[in-house]
Amino acid sequence: MITLTVNRKLYRVDAAPETPLLWVLRDELRLTGTKYGCGKSLCGACTVHVDGAAVRSCITPVSAVAGKEITTIEGIPESHPVKQAWLVEDVPQCGWCQPGQIMAATALLAEQSDPNDKAIDAAMDVVLCRCGTYPRIRKAIRRAAALARERGAP
Fold first, then answer.
1. Beta partners for 10?
2. CA–CA separation, 146 vs 80, rounded Å?
3. Which residue from 6, 18, 32, 112 has the highest number of Cβ atoms inside 10 Å of its Cβ?
Protein backbone atom coordinates (compact mmCIF):
# COMPACT_ATOMS: atom_id res chain seq x y z
CA MET A 1 0.00 0.00 0.00
CA ILE A 2 1.20 3.48 -0.87
CA THR A 3 -0.04 6.55 1.01
CA LEU A 4 -0.66 9.65 -1.08
CA THR A 5 -1.90 13.13 -0.28
CA VAL A 6 -3.85 14.39 -3.27
CA ASN A 7 -5.69 17.70 -3.22
CA ARG A 8 -5.26 17.75 0.57
CA LYS A 9 -6.93 14.35 1.03
CA LEU A 10 -5.13 11.26 2.25
CA TYR A 11 -5.41 8.08 0.16
CA ARG A 12 -4.01 4.58 0.48
CA VAL A 13 -3.64 2.83 -2.84
CA ASP A 14 -2.67 -0.69 -3.71
CA ALA A 15 -0.41 -0.09 -6.71
CA ALA A 16 2.91 -1.38 -7.89
CA PRO A 17 5.64 1.14 -6.95
CA GLU A 18 6.57 1.73 -10.60
CA THR A 19 2.99 2.53 -11.68
CA PRO A 20 2.88 6.02 -13.20
CA LEU A 21 1.15 8.54 -10.97
CA LEU A 22 -1.14 9.45 -13.88
CA TRP A 23 -2.78 6.02 -13.85
CA VAL A 24 -3.18 5.97 -10.08
CA LEU A 25 -4.87 9.38 -10.24
CA ARG A 26 -7.18 8.43 -13.11
CA ASP A 27 -7.88 4.74 -12.50
CA GLU A 28 -7.62 4.34 -8.74
CA LEU A 29 -8.68 7.77 -7.44
CA ARG A 30 -11.01 8.62 -10.36
CA LEU A 31 -9.48 12.08 -10.73
CA THR A 32 -9.78 12.21 -14.51
CA GLY A 33 -9.00 15.89 -15.05
CA THR A 34 -5.32 15.06 -15.55
CA LYS A 35 -5.04 13.91 -19.15
CA TYR A 36 -3.00 11.25 -20.91
CA GLY A 37 -1.34 12.65 -24.00
CA CYS A 38 1.85 10.90 -25.01
CA GLY A 39 3.03 8.78 -22.08
CA LYS A 40 6.61 9.95 -22.69
CA SER A 41 6.75 13.34 -20.93
CA LEU A 42 6.70 15.19 -24.24
CA CYS A 43 3.32 16.94 -24.33
CA GLY A 44 2.58 18.06 -20.75
CA ALA A 45 -1.11 17.11 -20.74
CA CYS A 46 -0.48 15.08 -17.59
CA THR A 47 1.10 17.93 -15.58
CA VAL A 48 0.33 17.99 -11.86
CA HIS A 49 2.04 19.66 -8.89
CA VAL A 50 4.20 17.70 -6.48
CA ASP A 51 5.17 19.83 -3.50
CA GLY A 52 4.28 22.85 -5.65
CA ALA A 53 6.46 21.96 -8.64
CA ALA A 54 4.97 21.09 -12.02
CA VAL A 55 5.78 17.47 -12.89
CA ARG A 56 4.74 15.00 -15.58
CA SER A 57 2.58 12.37 -13.96
CA CYS A 58 2.88 9.98 -16.92
CA ILE A 59 6.53 9.21 -16.06
CA THR A 60 6.51 9.79 -12.30
CA PRO A 61 6.37 6.51 -10.39
CA VAL A 62 3.74 6.58 -7.67
CA SER A 63 6.36 5.45 -5.16
CA ALA A 64 8.35 8.64 -5.81
CA VAL A 65 5.52 10.86 -4.58
CA ALA A 66 4.51 8.97 -1.45
CA GLY A 67 4.42 11.42 1.44
CA LYS A 68 4.46 14.45 -0.85
CA GLU A 69 1.69 16.96 -1.54
CA ILE A 70 0.11 16.27 -4.94
CA THR A 71 -2.26 18.75 -6.55
CA THR A 72 -4.29 17.97 -9.66
CA ILE A 73 -6.46 20.26 -11.75
CA GLU A 74 -9.36 19.29 -9.47
CA GLY A 75 -7.41 20.79 -6.57
CA ILE A 76 -7.19 24.24 -8.18
CA PRO A 77 -10.32 26.15 -7.07
CA GLU A 78 -12.57 27.75 -9.66
CA SER A 79 -11.88 31.09 -7.95
CA HIS A 80 -8.14 30.82 -8.68
CA PRO A 81 -6.94 33.76 -10.82
CA VAL A 82 -5.56 31.41 -13.49
CA LYS A 83 -8.87 29.60 -13.96
CA GLN A 84 -10.74 32.89 -14.03
CA ALA A 85 -8.33 34.45 -16.53
CA TRP A 86 -8.54 31.34 -18.72
CA LEU A 87 -12.26 31.89 -19.13
CA VAL A 88 -12.07 35.66 -19.61
CA GLU A 89 -9.40 35.30 -22.30
CA ASP A 90 -11.28 32.41 -23.95
CA VAL A 91 -8.19 30.19 -23.88
CA PRO A 92 -9.73 26.72 -24.27
CA GLN A 93 -10.41 25.52 -27.76
CA CYS A 94 -10.47 21.71 -27.88
CA GLY A 95 -9.59 21.70 -24.17
CA TRP A 96 -7.36 18.62 -24.10
CA CYS A 97 -4.21 20.43 -22.96
CA GLN A 98 -5.95 22.85 -20.62
CA PRO A 99 -5.46 20.95 -17.34
CA GLY A 100 -1.72 20.71 -18.06
CA GLN A 101 -1.58 24.34 -19.20
CA ILE A 102 -3.35 25.55 -16.06
CA MET A 103 -1.11 23.46 -13.80
CA ALA A 104 2.02 24.83 -15.51
CA ALA A 105 0.67 28.40 -15.29
CA THR A 106 -0.20 28.14 -11.60
CA ALA A 107 3.28 26.74 -10.84
CA LEU A 108 4.85 29.63 -12.78
CA LEU A 109 2.83 32.27 -10.92
CA ALA A 110 3.66 30.66 -7.59
CA GLU A 111 7.34 31.24 -8.43
CA GLN A 112 7.05 34.59 -10.23
CA SER A 113 4.24 36.98 -9.43
CA ASP A 114 4.78 39.11 -12.54
CA PRO A 115 6.53 37.06 -15.23
CA ASN A 116 7.54 38.67 -18.51
CA ASP A 117 6.77 37.09 -21.89
CA LYS A 118 10.12 35.30 -21.99
CA ALA A 119 9.46 33.67 -18.60
CA ILE A 120 5.92 32.77 -19.63
CA ASP A 121 7.11 31.22 -22.87
CA ALA A 122 9.84 29.25 -21.09
CA ALA A 123 7.40 27.89 -18.50
CA MET A 124 4.64 27.13 -20.97
CA ASP A 125 6.54 25.69 -23.91
CA VAL A 126 6.60 22.37 -22.08
CA VAL A 127 2.85 21.88 -22.59
CA LEU A 128 1.81 21.39 -26.20
CA CYS A 129 -1.40 22.93 -27.48
CA ARG A 130 -2.63 21.33 -30.68
CA CYS A 131 -4.98 24.26 -31.31
CA GLY A 132 -2.26 26.89 -31.02
CA THR A 133 -3.86 29.10 -28.38
CA TYR A 134 -0.44 30.24 -27.14
CA PRO A 135 -1.14 34.00 -27.55
CA ARG A 136 -4.32 33.63 -25.47
CA ILE A 137 -2.45 31.55 -22.89
CA ARG A 138 0.19 34.27 -22.52
CA LYS A 139 -2.51 36.93 -22.23
CA ALA A 140 -4.40 34.87 -19.63
CA ILE A 141 -1.26 34.41 -17.53
CA ARG A 142 -0.65 38.15 -17.56
CA ARG A 143 -4.29 38.70 -16.53
CA ALA A 144 -4.04 36.07 -13.77
CA ALA A 145 -0.89 37.72 -12.42
CA ALA A 146 -2.69 41.08 -12.32
CA LEU A 147 -5.75 39.51 -10.63
CA ALA A 148 -3.53 37.88 -8.00
CA ARG A 149 -1.78 41.18 -7.32
CA GLU A 150 -5.14 42.95 -6.99
CA ARG A 151 -6.22 40.35 -4.43
CA GLY A 152 -2.93 40.66 -2.57
CA ALA A 153 -2.00 37.06 -3.32
CA PRO A 154 1.60 36.05 -3.94
1. 5
2. 12
3. 6
Residue-averaged pLDDT of the chain: 93
Per the DSSP assignment, residues forming a β-bridge with 55 are: 48
pLDDT, tens only, 11-68: 999 999 999 999 999 999 999 999 999 889 989 999 999 999 999 999 999 999 999 9
**What is the number of domains present in the chain?**
2
CATH of the domain at 141: 1.10.150.120
Q: Strands 2-6 and 69-71: what pairing?
A: parallel
